[in-house]
Design brief:
The structure is a homodimer.
Chain A (H helix, E strand, L loop, with lengths): L1 E5 L6 H10 L3 E6 L2 H9 L10 H12 L3 E5 L5 H11 L3 E4 L6 H4 L3 H25 L4 E7 L14 E6 L2 E6 L7 H20 L2 E7 L1 E3 L25 H11 L3 E4 L5 E6 H13 L7 E6 L2 E4 H12 L5 E4 L17 H5 L8 H13 L32
Parallel strand pairs in A: 1-2, 1-4, 2-3, 4-5, 5-8, 8-12, 9-11, 10-14
Antiparallel strand pairs in A: 6-7, 11-13
Helix pairs in contact in A: 1-9, 4-6, 6-7, 8-10, 8-12, 10-12
């Protein structure tokens, strides 16, 4: 089918585009390169060198024979959004194109406002363009498990049946997101749900857990096809960051007690989930939510596992939690709809962590040590984040 | 106490400022006059002539001896927000300063984006300024009963205890808002709740019902002190609009069956509720929600009541519902916290409707008939709204 991948130059967007293209879908990718600009602002780089998008699609054509069509532009530019959708005429749009770092959104007022406006307006522009051009286009939107927070009851997939004072209804699951970034995804979810109700749009909201891993069958075909590997305190997610810390002999930084438990998944499962959502679209007017993760881990368990694999002198450093969150809590989240559609998970195993550490060791000369520690504190309204100790923004 | 009223030039903001000033609070008002600009865009005017803000505060000083300090500026301008809060040093901030019309937000993409960006960014700027300048400032935020939608269970005040699979938690009440405007208030609620959690701010979210009435004891003291009276299809709310329709012999436009039931309240009760919230602040870090209405009515009941009071030849016209909403539904909402603080409601009575109709008759020469009918259709992504049939926006 014809699938447009928004944010197709990013950590997950690029390998998703290759995964879909390799399976004979007609794929377009949209990006404004905002993610690369955040690197300039932070003074860091992907641990693994990545090529420009144009080189990536050229190499992919040479390696696979498949064409991936790039569209360069910004989703907050509604004219660009409309022109791109009209030209590519997708059957499904996979939407990765949002600022996706919780710490980045918590740097200061400017970054909070940027994150919410960028994410919410980009998605609003998409909803209007789909409604006007072709309401049958299926919007596959990347949400996050972080929208739910850590309630003291089981987390369901987007909706929950509530019986209250003798009456019953199925209602949107209550949300307690933990950053202005996570809040932006909650705002999106409400907006998309509404657009499905009033315009008959169809959408799948993929509430994704934390992704680990860096290589996929397609990105391994050529060095030009590699995707990003982030390890810094702002964009690096937990297991990938631990692997780099272990590789360079930096203590594994666990925030607080490390009892924070989160749903997680292998990068290869992200790609499979997105394709499963695309090829099994919801009915017109339907807004459905899939929880997209395969296992839950506490942060301390991941740190200990990484330390065991790395061996030797790797230590764990329980730093004060820069976030405002429960360091120990109940966590039991449902994720049955994607397995029901055929997902075969890659569960976390020693080899996964070994590959991450090995990759990190190959590129350890590229590590900016000052960027590893957490620099953004949730309790402060102004954090200093650049490795050069300069101000981020004004 | 020192109270800053944001949106203090508007329908409710201005009489609230007078109410608080008359009770010996030190009051400042902030406005960017966006509401007056919407009138220019729509080609309508307040049915009752209103004076400029500067004249209003001068007359109030002459009539009452009290000073109300005006601040002219925009909440999306963070420098203005910070400077105003530093200069006025409020103990409470009452926040009416948002685009508040559901139909306006549904005109087209541009108006939806404007509404969400204006409302969300203004409130984010406030939260940051309060956190940085004085976290003890109490943010009294105007939300809306429309955040809840029409669930098939009772509506509680902001939070609901849920027992699920043998475990229990108190969680934010699930939201099903019915327009991009109502969605903006849901976004605000989530953002404010989060700011209270991470920065220890204190806030009261007043989920207000539909307000009717136009005169208050203070606005009646001088003709310069009158507040707005909106009757048009975009900004006119239901009972006020019916009164004008009855006064000019226009059929009362009921959307669909008219079984839509909503919480409502007298304008005088709005002012009392806001003061009760201010003088009974929550604890630091507390985010509380009050449902602010006194009675529930169906639209058809209000139409029939208005027709009965108007007498004679007034008819009811069941036009196709321009909104996507249930025309008949269960509705039972709790509102006990404000009465517990001392609210003594003005329940709707014949005299209230008689005064509204009488006021409308006095100014019937100012009515733009073309502006009365509903022009914004929820199912369309582009509605024509100006009385001159021109395009709203580009």
């Amino acid at each position: 089918m014809r699938i447009l991948v928004l944010g197709g130059d990013g950590y997950l967007g690029w390998p998703t585009a290759l995964h879909l293209s390799a399976r004979n879908h007609d794929v377009g990718v949209v990006d404004n390169f905002a993610r690369r600009l955040y690197d300039c602002e932070m003074g860091v780089d992907s641990l693994v060198p990545i090529r420009q998008l144009q080189r990536r699609v050229t190499t992919w054509k040479e390696v696979s024979g498949h064409t991936v069509q790039p569209f360069i532009g910004d989703l907050t530019d509604e004219v660009f959004v409309e022109e791109t959708i009209r030209e590519f005429a997708p059957e499904a749009i996979v939407h990765f194109a949002e600022q996706r770092s919780a710490p980045y959104s918590m740097i200061d007022r400017k970054h909070a406002v940027y994150t919410q406006v960028n994410n919410v307006v980009g998605t609003l522009n998409l909803l209007y363009a789909i409604a006007e051009i072709d309401p049958s286009i299926h919007l596959v939107k990347l949400g996050t498990m972080g929208e739910y927070g850590t309630p003291n009851i089981d987390i369901e997939e987007g909706f929950i049946e509530i019986t209250h004072k003798g009456r019953t209804d199925i209602l949107p699951y209550p949300k307690q997101p933990g950053s202005f970034y996570h809040l932006s995804k909650v705002h999106d979810s409400h907006n998309i749900h509404f657009a499905c109700r009033i315009w008959g749009l169809r959408s799948t909201d993929l509430n994704q857990g934390i992704v680990y891993g860096q290589e996929t069958p397609e990105t391994m075909l050529h060095r030009d096809l590699r995707t990003r590997f982030d390890y810094d305190g702002v964009f690096g997610t937990v297991l990938n960051r631990f692997a780099v810390q272990a590789a360079v002999g930096y203590p594994l930084t666990v925030y607080g007690k490390g009892g924070q438990t989160r749903g997680m998944l292998d990068i290869r499962d992200t790609l499979a989930c997105v394709e499963l959502a695309c090829v099994n679209p919801p009915e017109p007017g339907e807004y459905r939510v899939f929880n997209q993760f395969t296992e839950s881990f506490s942060v301390i368990d991941l740190a200990e596992w990484t330390a065991k694999i790395a061996g030797g002198d790797v230590t764990i450093d329980n730093v004060p939690d820069p976030r405002v969150e429960k360091e120990e809590h109940y966590y039991n989240a449902v994720a049955t709809q994607l397995p029901a559609l055929g997902l075969k998970p890659h569960f976390l195993e020693d080899a996964t962590i070994e590959v991450l550490i090995e990759t990190a060791k190959q590129h350890k000369d590229r590590v900016e040590f000052d960027a590893i520690r957490p620099t953004v504190n949730w309790r402060s309204t102004k954090s200093q984040v650049s490795v050069a100790k300069g101000a981020a923004g004004d």
